[in-house]
Amino acid sequence: MLILECPYCGVKADETELSPGYEAHLKRYGPGSSPEEFEAYMFARKNPKGVHFERWRHAYGCGKWFLAARCTATLEVFGTYPAQSGEPPAELQAKIKAKRPNWEGYK
Amino acid sequence: MSTRLQKGGRLIDRSRAATFTFNGKQLTGFAGDTLAAGLLANDQMLVGRSFKYHRPRGIVASGAEEPNALVNMGEGGRFEPNQRTTTTELFDGLTATSQNHWPSLEFDVGVVNNYAARFLPAGFYYKTFMFPRFAWKHVFEPVVRQSAGLGKVPQGPEVDRYEYAYAFCDLLIAGGGIAGLQAALVAGGAGKRVILVEQTPHWGGRAPVDGDVIDGISADEWVKKTVQALEKMSNVTMRLRCMAAGVYDHGYVLADEKVADHTPGDGRPRHRLWRIRAGKIIAATGAIERPLSFAGNDIPGVMLASAVRDYVVNYAVSPGDRTVIVTNNDDAYRTAIALKEAGLEVPVIVDARTNVTGDLPAKARAMGIRVEAGRAVVKVKGAKRVTGVAIGLQAGEGAVLEEIACDAVAMSGGWSPVVHLWSHCGGKLTWDDAQAHFRPDATRPPTNQDGAAMVATLGSANGQLSAAAALADVAAQLGGKAVTADTVHEAALEPVWIMPQGAGHKLKMKMFLDYQNDVKVSDVQLAAREGYTSVEHTKRYTTLGMATDQGKLSNINGLAVLAGALNDKIPNVGTTTFRPPYTPVPLGALAGESRGDIFQPLRKSPMHGWHEAHGAYMEPVGLWRRAYCYARGSETHEQAVQREILNARANVGMLDASTLGKIIVKGPDAGRFLDMLYTNVMSNLGIGKCRYGLMCNEQGFLSDDGVVIRLSDDSWLCHTTTGGADRIHAWMEDWLQCEWWDWKVYTANVTEEYAQIAVAGPNARMVLEKLGGMDVSKETLPFMSFADGTLGGLPVRVHRISFSGELSYEIATPAGHGLALWEALIEAGAEFGVMPYGTEAMHIMRAEKGFIMIGDETDGTVIPQDLNLGWAISKKKADYLGKRGQERTHLASPDRWKLAGFEALDGSVIPDGSYIIADGFNGNGQRNTQGRVTSTYYSPTLKKGIAMGLVKGGMDRLGDVVEFNTLTTATVKARVVDPVFYDKDGEKGNA
Amino acid sequence: MKRYSVFAIAREAMNYHLGWEKAWGNPEPKKDYDVIIVGAGGHGLATAYYLGKNHGIKNVAIIEKGWLGGGNTGRNTTIIRSNYLQDPSAAIYDKALKLYEGLSQDLNYNVMFSPRGLLMLAQTHHEVRGYLRTVHANMLQGVTTEYISPARVKELVPIINIDGPRYPVLGALYQPRGGTGRHDAVAWGYARACAAMGMDIIQQTEVTAVRSEAGVVKGVETSKGFIGCKKLGVVVAGHSGQLAEMGGFRLPIEAVALQALVSEPIKPCMDVVVMANTVHGYMSQSDKGEMVIGGGTDGFNNFTQRGSFHHVEETLRALIETFPMISRLKMLRQWGGIVDMTGDRSPIISKTPLGNCFFNCGWGTGGFKAIPGSGWAMAELMAKGEPGPLAEEFSMWRFKEGKFIDESVAAGVAH
Q1: pTM
Q2: Closest chain C C-alpha to A50 CA, distance in angstroms
Q3: What residues make up the domain containing A54?
């Protein structure tokens, strides 16, 4: 039963208020992309056992999508940040690196 | 015999008798008794039969760990199987019956299994019952099932109700013994929000029974004083009869409060399920005494030493007149002393240790109790009740030195901390050699969302077994004023896993580890011998610890025997996984109030009540209920649907379309956004116009359709399917927030803000004109346009769109006016023959017209091109959601099945769901297919069966005859035709 | 291997059961093998078994990180059925069902396959149409199913409430040959049979890397050192992504939690398996008498074998609506497993970009029922290097082509 803090409204939201959206920071490949690029965009998921960046929507709250860095092995949440982010905030990345020295980075 | 003592009993109220029945026999106990205490007070030691061998079973324990004394309780809508008598409070009028026997508890035919026990070792069923092949299902399995199963099957539905409660706290403390109380006092005093829950109806735990002295006063007095202090703290919430069932991730705790189990029918909810978010959890859940493994340790009358003490001290019940104590530690001497002080006989204390030195043995000896050191119970004598014990050397092989008559045996193999809550989310354990138990390893706790320790354990649950040690543990972990308990010197225990240590196979086949599931020492050794050496394998092979007590008594003893068999250390063998709940929780309590009509939220259109009042048969559509048809008099649903269609085609019909999704999309980039969302172009739609549009997912598969209207320069309103409204709105927000977040677009799901009514049929215009208020003529309001205005004085937006193929107006009005508009239309339409029609008539009319239906023609693998909807796919747009997906080889293949119409050659209705057969078989021997039906109906308009479906080649196959399969060997031959069966030129809709 | 039988039990009983031999050994790994299977769950063990039995390949090691059968094989709700909609699914699940029907005799180990019948309730008109479609498809696939009336449902399941206020039962898809099996016994039976063929089951050994040369697999690095092989089969369910990464490629797989629970045991009251998919719950009664209950998956990646409790509550609400008498039964134990979900929720039995390396994964919530068929197909793929008809459609490249095997299309589910 996760709790994630919505970075928009500041609510520490119970999982039942949220809708999950799986992997974050996917780059969309549309018409003109190669079959491999499109397949990777649609299907090839990182699915790490460890630090994972994922999408959530505060569906039964403010309605906003946001992103979370969470460990899939311990369910520790390193932080949440707005969906309008090209990459995880540097400060969050530093925090994760400090906690998980072997972490290979979000890419 | 077991009986009520004349004096004592700290928990009972002798002034309030409680009458109850057991197997129809009327018995009397006192308020404050547990059912087990009440049974023992009436000399009812035999209470059930075991699972496998149907051996007689008596009460062993006094709490949640009881494996044997489970009964069927209550009657009718309050009947409950497998009720644990040791945790059931006695009340006047309670009825209970014993379980798992036939024909009676005293004489059970199933006991033949016991005589055949030698042939039924662990896992015997894996090795036999294989021949002949059908025999398992038809012969053996029914016998096994009937013989297993414990409690009886509840009959009727439940009469009680349940409720959820929500709570948040800094600290949740599970366990109201002295450690839990003191922890609450310290944390509460420091201003923390504390919730303290205790599973029994009493505060204080074991300390009062053990006669501890805390801060110079008796434990009873100290508990009373502390509870009073806590009750004064507004930041401390205390709940009795409330069991912390499970710890879940991120500090979520479920606790089950038995509100009215002891006062059934008093109007309160039976249980209350607490759903708690705790900053931190403290498990002060105590410890459970372990049995000893000696032959006959399952015979009724053999009990845990602590339980015997509980019954004597708490309930003034003596389990026996002459009780032999058998132990490997000092604590059990407390039981001997308590029995002696109550005036009962303790013929001997059999102590497996060769050196017996502690304070308590000294006191026992001083009271004149005989203590035999280095001795073992070789076997217990008796069948349905203990009659004596045979004693030998613990170091020996079972030679009997002496037989002693007794009617009860109190055993103690040491104590194991209750580590369940610590372990549910992955807290690790460490083996404590000195106390021979697993206790929490504080360096490897379960962690929360911040990666910090989420659970701590205190007192006995942390391996601090004495009152003094437990209170010191609280001070060490939480601080606060030091509270001290008088220390009693206890000598070390000596682990004893098999008694006597050199016992032969014959004895080991009578040493029970798991009483309920009949798992013996010999079974665990057999599992090890056969290679089931992982602790999980042993558990599953023997069923050790899988009974309704989940191994609370048996697990550690079983592990130790396994370790012995493997010649390994106990910590290397490890434990099985602890899973919630700590003790079983009623399914009804977990489900809460959501049952019957409010099982799920119900969405109602503004006209919902009207439909119900007018005989509508309602069907669930998502959380909505929609009118399927309005049967009149003795009409069948089918007849009603046909009447509704014919009337709409001939006169005029009305459909409640309020559930259709309505989403406003507004902003400078709204047109651009809709062009990405829909396969066709929406940005160039004229203001006041309507356009049909398709939406695909990124795979390219058709996901929703509907009419889009343009309200103004920067705003559109998108209609979606009933089931699609929330999903499509979320989908829009997903793209706007996560991909094109620089686009200036605002969306609002206004589905519930408006009622919508379709008025369809040749007389539709006359009905609207009769209401009056706006011009709805063909010239002013042509097909695929809309206008705002009033009808009959109500504000409306009228759309000229048609899903039925008839002249049709879809009229939207603010939800609050929905019913008024509906009734006004019904009244105005009376003279024009108006009738309401339901969803099934709508489905058939659209099929007659060849319109696709999301969910019928589509199934998540169909692309618009399959449905001949290429005209709704823009060729000039560089991109739209799904475009790239549709370019993939399989989606672009010419071999795809495509939409066509079908007419059975004999005019019949092609069976729903049938496939079009092709020649030959595939590599797996399956018949090849070339298509399938997607919508198939009897058309009352055309008086014959019509169908739509997908077929390889699609409309290129016009005129071909194909064969649909049926559920018999017969097939239905059908001709491929145009799917538009009615008004091919669209004259009616355009009228 | 000494045969199991009632006579063997009688003989051993005279000797306090001291004479039973080990069902499988505890061998140290050899330097190399013809085939290494990673993962000693049901699917991995079945693969090894059919490699030996059907293809004569017996120089095989099965490497297991924990204890054999300890993953999803040992934590599912033991439902066996083959009433799938799509041809490739129906083919492999029906192959599995047929093998289950004779598995106890084949393995000389009673896996307690109990063809007690399985019902999937139709509770909306949409679901009715979906199951009618399935029943027609099954007819052509050679899978015997029936669509039955509410009255017949009530006859088969007297404890059911077919007139619930919200979702009355409108009918059901019935597969009389469906049922349940004893999950642990399936793993143990295969393990014993593999060991009897001389295969090494190496437990408590973790694979840490895949070694390859020139794009062809050479062996695996493990916590017990390097072990060489000519062919590698990876059958590790939830951890497939991690193993694929070691092989240098990615899979269309996400690991999520699926939960299940059992009630306390009661006397027999339900002889069939019932799945209610509209309301998300399914239930059967085990031979011990426990009601075995499952529901939907969580929606986020999770390797903890724990799920979110609100899903359990939702499942229970649904089942109490369907079976009101269970309200006063008690939940005895709940647990979770890690299920590997693919892009179309159907499995992958496939060659991979790495030569001589094969993957079998993606069984999601429905793997137990497939075990014999999955092993059969995987063994054929590994022995021949090319898929047979059973595995052909389950290639990992189908996603690129958009050639889904989507079971969710009718009212079906994958459980």
Answers
A1: 0.95
A2: 9
A3: 3-26+35-99
Subunit contact B252:A75, Cβ cutoff 8 A: no
Distance from CA of C385 to the nearest CA of A (A): 24
Q: What is the pLDDT of residues B279-330, one digit of tens each?
A: 999 999 999 999 999 999 999 999 999 999 999 999 999 999 999 999 999 9
Contact across the interface for B885 and A42, Cβ inside 8 Å: yes
A107 within some domain? no
Chain B residue with minimum CA distance to C400: B888
Which CATH architecture does the domain made up of B11-156 adopt?
Roll (3.10)
- Name the strand (E) or helix (H) holding B987: helix B987-990
Per-residue pLDDT of B385-396, as tens digits, reads 999 999 999 999
Instruction: Assess contact for A21 and A57: CB atoms under 8 A.
Output: yes
Per-residue confidence (pLDDT) for residue C412, from 0 to 100 = 43
CB C115 within 8 A of CB B894: no
Contact B741 A83 (CB under 8 A): yes
CATH number belonging to domain B291-413+491-503: 3.50.50.60
Token readout for B242 is: 């409330």
pLDDT (tens digit per residue) in B520-566: 999 999 999 999 999 999 999 999 999 999 999 999 999 999 999 99
Residue B60 pLDDT exceeds 70: yes
CATH of B511-579, one of 1.10.10.1100, 3.40.50.300, 3.10.290.10, 1.10.10.10: 1.10.10.1100
Residues in chain A within 8 Å Cβ distance of B730: 19, 57, 59
Q: Is residue A15 part of a domain?
A: yes
Which residues of B, range 432-471, sit inside 8 Å of A by Cβ?
A: 447-451
Q: Report d(CA B936, CA B902) in Å as an integer.
A: 9
Count of structural domains, chain A: 1
- The answer to whether the complex's ipTM is over 0.90 is yes
Is residue B340 within 8 A of residue B365, CB to CB? The reply is no
Contacts of A52 in chain C (CB under 8 A): 301
CATH 3.40.640.10, domain B847-867+886-990, yes or no: no
From CA B99, how far away is CA B82, in angstroms rounded? Answer: 8
Nearest Cα of chain C lies from the Cα of B895 at a distance, in angstroms, of 13
- A64 inside domain: yes
Give the single-character DSSP code of B829.
H
B107 contact C CB<8A: no
Q: Which residue of A has its CA nearest to C297?
A: A20
Following DSSP, what letter does each residue of B110-163 receive, concatenated? GGHHHHTGGG--TTGGGSS--SSTTHIIIIIHHHHHHHS--BPPP-S-----EE
Which option is the CATH number for B661-752: 3.40.50.300, 1.10.1610.10, 3.40.50.620, 3.30.70.1400?
A: 3.30.70.1400
Q: How far apart are CA C135 and CA C146, in angstroms?
A: 6
Both tokens assigned to B150: 């414990």
CATH code that applies to domain B162-287+417-478: 3.50.50.60
C56 CA: distance to closest CA in chain B (Å): 23
- Taking the Cβ of residue A42 and every Cβ of chain C, the question of whether any pair is shorter than 8 Å is answered with yes
Model pLDDT for residues B877-929, shown as the tens digit of each residue? 999 999 999 999 999 999 999 999 999 999 999 999 999 999 999 999 999 99
